């Protein structure tokens, strides 16, 4: 409890919409708080001692292992999505943010149930594919996201969105100057290494979220080219 009998932050844990999961270096669950039972179907007591990977949908295990390796290497994982099999056998889509504590030798993850959002999105994409023909790369401003041809939705920061929107609407080539100016920066004062770093980060973000590579080619001394078909969602 906090001062004068008021609840401490820890007292609110079970009211969270997200589940906070702590696992050891072998992937065994140590503790879970928050919306554990609502998301996974297991009580926190039932989750303790389980290997989290055993609950992952078989088709997502290889990709999940790659994500775990990155987290264990010190990379802060944000918005990684995979599927879990609930206690009742139903499939649930989870969005994870996770980090590794070297000091305590535990991996801490925050799990958010995005199943309904996923189904709503897949229904929307399905309707679009009926009229679009072949699957396209799509970009949306509200919410800011990039949608891969397999339907995976990737959250974008404001800067990510501006860069990709400029590339996807720029035709066969987009100059560095055009991208920098779209960002509201002065091209002569802008450090070009920042743009290279931005592009590497975007490529990594896409490859970590889905089975596709970001279809952006670097045009030496010119800029970049988004070389697959796109659609801009308003």
From TrEMBL:
Domain PAS: 18-75
GO molecular function: DNA binding; protein histidine kinase activity
Gene Ontology biological process: phosphorelay signal transduction system; regulation of DNA-templated transcription
Record SMART domains: PAS (SM00091), Trans_reg_C (SM00862)
Signal peptide: none
CDD domains, per the entry: PAS
Coiled coil: none
Keyword terms: DNA-binding, Kinase, Phosphoprotein, Transferase
InterPro entries listed in its UniProt record: OmpR/PhoB-type_DNA-bd (IPR001867), PAS (IPR000014), PAS-like_dom_sf (IPR035965), PAS_fold_3 (IPR013655), Sensor_kinase/Photoreceptor (IPR052162), Sig_transdc_resp-reg_C-effctor (IPR016032), WH-like_DNA-bd_sf (IPR036388)
Reaction catalysed by this enzyme: ATP + protein L-histidine = ADP + protein N-phospho-L-histidine
EC number per UniProt: 2.7.13.3
PANTHER family associated with the record: PAC DOMAIN-CONTAINING PROTEIN, PHYTOCHROME-LIKE PROTEIN CPH1
Name of the protein this chain belongs to: histidine kinase
Protein species of origin: Herminiimonas fonticola
């Amino acid at each position: 409890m906090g001062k004068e009998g008021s609840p401490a932050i820890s007292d609110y844990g079970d009211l969270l919409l997200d589940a906070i999961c702590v696992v050891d270096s072998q992937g065994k669950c140590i503790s879970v708080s928050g919306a554990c039972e609502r998301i996974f179907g297991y009580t926190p007591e039932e989750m303790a001692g389980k290997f989290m990977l055993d609950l992952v949908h078989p088709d997502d295990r290889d990709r999940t292992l790659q994500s775990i390796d990155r987290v264990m290497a010190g990379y802060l994982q944000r918005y990684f999505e995979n599927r879990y099999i609930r206690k009742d056998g139903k499939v649930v889509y989870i969005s994870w943010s996770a980090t590794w504590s070297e000091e305590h030798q535990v991996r801490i993850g925050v799990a958010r149930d995005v199943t309904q959002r996923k189904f709503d999105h897949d229904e929307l994409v399905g309707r679009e594919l009926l009229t679009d023909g072949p699957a396209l790369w799509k970009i949306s401003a509200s919410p800011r996201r990039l949608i891969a041809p397999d339907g995976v939705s990737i959250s974008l920061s404001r800067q990510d969105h501006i860069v990709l929107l400029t590339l996807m609407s720029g035709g066969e080539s987009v100059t560095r100057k055009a991208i920098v100016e779209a960002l509201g920066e002065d091209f002569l004062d802008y450090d070009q290494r920042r743009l290279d770093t931005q592009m590497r980060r975007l490529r990594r973000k896409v490859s970590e979220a889905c089975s596709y590579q970001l279809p952006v080619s670097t045009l030496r001394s010119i800029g970049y080219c988004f070389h697959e078909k796109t659609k801009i969602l308003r």
